[in-house]
Amino acid sequence: MRSFWRLDITSTNLQGEVLDAWPEPARYFAVSASVDEAFYLIGGIQMDSEDENTSAHRYLMDAYWYSPGPGWEQLADLHGGYAYFASSKPRVSPFIIAGMPSASHTGAGASVR
Fold first, then answer.
1. Residue range of the domain that includes 24
2. How far apart are the C-alpha atoms of 35 and 92, rounded to whole Å?
């Protein structure tokens, strides 16, 4: 499932707004971070089968940037697939991320925008 929402937590009427989802594929265990008005979605894991009983999956190397107005923009791919990222509220851009690489990659992180 691909679903992207915005919630204004300063409003007294807490109601989510559905926004355009990122380009395919759906993913889980991706990193997400925000800097000012921009939102980043990086890597993650894609199930290679619709069958929930199958463990086939692949680590994703793609990265996206979202900003209100222009919407989604694809960034340069990572040097390998990553998932299980740690993220914090960066104060500056660019920022550095690190996570668990796929078995076919030995890198330890990527610098994004």
1. 4-112
2. 7
